[in-house]
C-alpha cells in the first residue's frame, strides 16, 4: 500500500518530466542508429597493399573488397610504402611471406591482417575440402550401401510383422496385436533416425564453409553488450539523481517522518523505476531487431530478463552511490568512475586475455555478468541454464545493495 | 500517563564539539499549545527532531504517546511540519496531499474529505490542482501545514509554521489551532514571532541548548518583571551571557 503510493509518485514524476523520458527512451535508439552506420562504413574502408613476387593463388585470396592489390617490382618494402602511400607491402621468398605495415592507420593495418589471415585459412581450407570431398564421396557410397541393406532388412521385418498382426487380429488376440504394433513402430523409427544421422554428417562438413566466409560485423557482436550498457547507464543516472534530489530537497526525511518502512521506500523505487527500465529495454531490443534486422538466436524473454536484472542492479547502485554525492554535479562525477569502466569489461576486450588482476576487477563489475549473459543469449542462443549463474550473481548484487540502501537510510530515522 | 503526549527527559545532543541540547526536559500534556522560542541556532529544530526520533540523542529518553522513541508506528499519530518545505514540486498540491495521506494510512473515502478540509483551512482550495513548482513561498508553507494535518493527528509538531504567511491568514491559522486544541489535540510550535508566543499556553525559552526559562507567558513575564515576552527573551539572554562571563 505505502510502496504503491511511492510507485505512483515515481510514475507521475517521470511522466511529467518529458526531457528525462526522452533521454531514457530515445537517446539509446539514437546512439544505436549512429553506431550502426558508423560500423557499417568501417567495413567499406579499403586498404592498399603492395605485393612483390607473391604466388598468384595467395594474391587471389587476399584480394577482397577491403584490400586493393598493387603489383610492384621492388622488394624494398619501406621505400615502396613511402613512395606510393601504401598501407602494407607483401613479399615472398620461397614459402616465406613477409609483410610490412605502414601502420599510420591502425584500421587499415588490421584490414590487411584480417584479409591475409582469412585468405591463408581459405587456402588451407581449399586443400582440406578437396580431401574431405573425396572422403565424403567414399563415405556416402558406403552409407548408401548400408542404407539399402537396412531398408531391405526393415522391409522384410515390416512385412513379417504386418502378416503376424493380421493373423493375431484374425485370431482375436488383441494383446499380441498391440505388442506387434509397437515393434512395427520401432522398426520404422530406426529407419527414419538413420536417415537423420546421415543428414547431420553432411551438415558438419558444410559448416566449415559457413564459418570461413562468415563476416558478422562489429556492430552485431557488440550489440548485446551495448543493450545492457544503455539500460545500466540510464537507470543508474536517473535513479541516482532522483534519490539525490529527494535527499537535498528534504522530501526523503519528510517521508521518513511518516510510518513508512525504509524498505518500502526502496521497494517503491525498484518497482517504479524498474517499470521504466522494462519499457526502455523492450523499446531498444525491438528497435534493433526490427530496424537493423539483427538476428536474435536465443529467447527474447531471456534478453528482457537479463536487462531487467541489470537495471535493478543499476537502480540500487545509483541509489547507493547517490548517498556519497551532495549535488547533481557530484553525482555526474561518479559516472567516469563507476559506469564507464564497466563497458571495458562488458566484452569489448576479451576478459580471458586480460592480466589476472584485471580479471579480478572484471568479476566485481555487474555489467561483466550482464553483458556476458546477453551476448550468450543473442549470439549463441544460450538458455536459462547457461546464463543462470550470471543472473544469480546479478540478483546477489541487487540484494546486497538493497540491504545497504535500507541500512543507509537510518541516517534519517533510527527505525 | 495517557494524558501526556510527549515526555522528554534529560535530552542531550551534540554535533562535533558543539553541545546543541543540554539536558532538556519537556512535558506536553493533551490539549495544550506548547511554544518553543529561542534565538537562531538555539537547538529548537534539533529538539523537535529528537522528539520525533529523526535525530539520535546522546543521552536522555523521549516518549511520544507513551511509546519510547524512535518508533515507526507512532509517526501516524504525529503531524509534522518541517522548517523547510519538503514538497514534490512536479506534483500538484492535491497529489502531494494524497501521497502523504496514503503514507499515513488515511482511508480512501476519508482522504478526499480531509483534503477538502485541510485545503480550506490554509486557503488553498482554489489552487489544489496547480503544480507546487508554481506556488509562492507562502503557499508552499501553507501546503506543508495542510500535509501535517492530513491524517487528523492528535499531536502536531510544527517548526515555524507561519513564516512567510500574511497576517490575515496567520490569524486564521491560529484561530484554527486553538479550535483543534479545544478538541483535545496538542501542538508543539517553534516561532520567532513574539505575538504568537503570547498565544501559547506554555513556553520554553532555549538558548545555547539550555532550557533557560519555562512557564505560561504570564508567569514568565512576572518572573522577569517585564511586560512582554520579547523582553523576557532579551533579558533572559543577557542574564545567561552575564553568567557565562562570570564563570
Ligand atoms: N546536521 C548538523 N550537523 C552539524 N551541526 C548541526 C546540524 N544540525 C544543526 N546543527 C547545529 O546545531 C545548532 C542548532 O540547530 P537548530 O537547527 O536546532 O537551531 P534552531 O534553534 O532550530 O534555529 P533556527 O531558529 O534558526 O531554526 C546550530 O548551531 C547548528 O549549527
Ligand atoms: Mg530551526
Automatic annotation (TrEMBL), chain A:
Question: Localized where?
Answer: Cell membrane
Q: Give the residues annotated as coiled coil.
A: 151-190
Q: What is this protein called?
A: ABC transporter permease
Task: Note the PANTHER family from the entry.
Answer: MEMBRANE COMPONENT OF ABC TRANSPORTER YHHJ-RELATED, TRANSPORT PERMEASE PROTEIN
Q: Which family does it belong to?
A: Belongs to the ABC-2 integral membrane protein family.
Q: Give the residue spans that cross the bilayer.
A: 21-39, 222-244, 265-292, 298-322, 334-358, 387-407
Domain annotation ABC transmembrane type-2: ranges: 187-412
The answer to whether keyword Transmembrane helix applies is yes
Q: How does it sit in the bilayer?
A: Multi-pass membrane protein
TrEMBL record, chain B:
Nucleotide-binding found in the keyword field? yes
Pfam family name, one? ABC_tran
Question: What does the UniProt keyword field contain?
Answer: ATP-binding, Nucleotide-binding
Signal peptide span per the entry? none
Query: What GO molecular-function term can you cite, just one?
Result: ATP hydrolysis activity
* Cited SUPFAM superfamilies: P-loop containing nucleoside triphosphate hydrolases
What residue stretches are annotated with the ABC transporter domain?
A: 6-233
The answer to whether UniProt assigns keyword Nucleotide-binding to this entry is yes
Concerning InterPro entries, the annotation shows: AAA+_ATPase, ABC_transporter-like_ATP-bd, ABC_transporter-like_CS, P-loop_NTPase
| Listed PANTHER family | ABC TRANSPORTER G FAMILY MEMBER 20 ISOFORM X1, ATP-BINDING CASSETTE, SUB-FAMILY H, MEMBER 1
Q: What is this protein called?
A: ABC transporter, ATP-binding protein
Origin organism is Paucilactobacillus vaccinostercus DSM 20634
Amino acid at each position: 500500500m505505502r510502496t504503491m503510493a511511492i510507485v505512483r509518485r515515481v510514475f507521475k514524476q517521470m511522466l511529467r518530466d518529458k526531457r528525462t523520458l526522452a533521454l531514457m527512451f530515445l537517446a539509446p535508439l539514437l546512439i544505436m542508429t549512429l553506431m550502426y552506420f558508423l560500423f557499417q562504413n568501417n567495413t567499406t574502408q579499403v586498404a592498399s597493399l603492395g605485393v612483390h613476387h607473391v604466388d598468384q593463388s595467395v594474391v587471389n585470396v587476399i584480394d577482397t573488397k577491403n584490400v586493393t592489390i598493387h603489383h610492384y617490382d621492388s622488394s624494398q618494402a619501406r621505400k615502396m610504402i613511402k613512395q606510393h602511400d601504401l598501407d602494407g607491402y607483401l613479399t615472398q621468398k620461397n614459402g616465406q611471406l613477409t609483410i610490412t605495415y605502414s601502420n599510420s592507420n591502425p584500421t587499415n593495418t588490421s584490414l590487411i591482417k584480417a584479409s591475409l589471415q582469412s585468405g591463408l585459412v581459405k587456402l588451407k581450407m581449399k586443400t582440406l575440402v578437396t580431401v574431405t570431398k573425396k572422403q565424403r564421396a567414399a563415405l556416402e557410397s558406403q552409407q548408401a550401401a548400408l542404407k539399402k541393406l537396412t531398408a531391405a532388412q526393415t522391409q522384410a521385418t515390416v512385412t513379417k510383422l504386418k502378416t503376424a498382426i493380421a493373423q493375431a487380429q484374425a485370431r482375436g488376440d488383441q494383446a499380441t496385436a498391440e505388442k506387434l504394433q509397437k515393434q512395427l513402430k520401432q522398426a520404422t523409427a530406426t529407419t527414419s533416425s538413420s536417415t537423420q544421422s546421415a543428414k547431420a554428417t553432411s551438415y558438419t562438413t558444410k559448416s566449415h564453409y559457413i564459418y570461413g566466409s562468415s563476416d558478422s560485423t562489429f556492430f552485431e557482436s557488440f550489440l548485446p553488450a551495448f543493450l545492457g550498457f544503455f539500460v545500466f547507464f540510464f537507470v543508474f543516472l536517473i535513479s541516482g539523481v532522483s534519490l539525490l534530489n529527494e535527499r537535498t530537497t528534504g522530501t526523503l526525511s519528510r517521508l521518513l517522518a511518516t510510518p513508512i518502512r525504509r524498505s518500502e521506500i526502496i521497494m517503491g523505487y525498484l518497482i517504479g523505476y524498474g517499470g521504466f527500465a522494462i519499457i526502455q529495454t523492450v523499446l531498444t531490443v525491438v528497435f534493433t531487431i526490427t530496424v537493423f534486422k539483427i538476428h536474435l538466436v536465443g529467447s527474447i524473454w531471456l534478453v528482457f530478463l537479463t536487462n531487467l536484472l541489470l537495471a535493478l542492479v543499476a537502480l540500487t547502485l545509483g541509489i547507493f552511490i547517490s548517498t556519497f554525492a551532495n549535488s547533481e554535479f557530484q553525482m555526474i562525477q561518479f559516472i567516469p568512475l563507476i559506469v564507464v569502466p564497466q563497458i571495458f569489461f562488458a566484452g569489448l576486450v576479451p576478459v580471458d586475455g586480460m592480466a589476472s588482476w584485471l580479471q579480478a576487477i572484471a568479476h566485481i563489475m555487474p555489467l561483466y555478468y550482464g553483458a556476458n549473459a546477453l551476448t550468450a543469449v543473442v549470439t549463441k542462443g544460450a538458455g536459462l541454464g547457461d546464463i543462470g549463474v550470471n543472473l544469480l550473481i546479478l540478483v546477489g548484487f541487487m540484494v546486497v545493495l538493497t540491504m545497504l540502501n535500507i541500512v543507509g537510510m537510518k541516517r534519517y530515522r533510527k527505525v | 500517563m495517557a494524558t501526556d503526549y510527549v515526555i522528554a527527559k534529560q535530552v542531550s545532543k551534540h554535533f562535533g564539539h558543539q553541545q546543541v541540547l543540554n539536558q532538556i526536559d519537556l512535558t506536553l500534556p493533551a490539549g495544550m499549545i506548547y511554544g518553543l522560542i529561542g534565538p537562531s541556532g538555539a537547538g529548537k529544530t534539533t529538539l523537535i527532531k529528537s522528539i520525533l526520533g529523526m535525530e539520535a540523542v546522546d543521552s536522555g529518553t523521549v516518549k511520544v504517546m507513551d511509546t519510547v522513541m524512535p518508533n515507526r508506528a507512532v509517526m501516524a499519530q504525529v503531524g509534522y511540519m518541517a522548517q523547510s518545505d519538503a514538497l514534490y514540486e512536479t506534483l500538484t498540491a492535491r497529489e502531494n496531499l494524497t501521497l502523504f495521506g496514503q503514507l499515513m494510512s488515511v482511508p480512501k473515502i476519508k482522504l478526499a474529505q480531509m483534503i477538502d478540509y485541510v485545503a480550506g483551512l490554509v486557503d488553498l482550495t482554489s489552487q489544489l490542482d496547480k503544480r507546487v513548482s508554481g506556488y509562492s513561498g507562502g503557499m508552499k508553507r501553507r501546503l506543508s501545514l495542510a500535509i501535517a494535518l492530513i491524517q487528523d493527528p492528535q499531536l502536531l509538531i510544527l517548526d515555524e509554521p507561519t513564516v512567510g504567511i500574511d497576517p490575515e491568514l496567520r490569524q486564521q491559522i491560529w484561530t484554527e489551532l486553538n479550535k483543534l486544541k479545544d478538541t483535545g489535540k496538542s501542538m508543539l510550535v517553534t516561532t520567532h514571532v513574539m505575538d504568537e508566543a503570547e498565544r501559547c499556553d506554555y513556553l520554553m525559552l532555549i538558548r545555547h541548548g539550555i532550557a533557560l526559562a519555562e512557564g505560561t507567558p504570564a508567569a514568565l513575564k512576572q518572573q522577569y518583571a517585564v511586560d512582554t515576552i520579547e523582553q523576557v527573551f532579551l533579558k533572559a539572554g543577557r542574564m545567561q551571557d552575564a553568567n557565562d562571563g562570570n564563570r
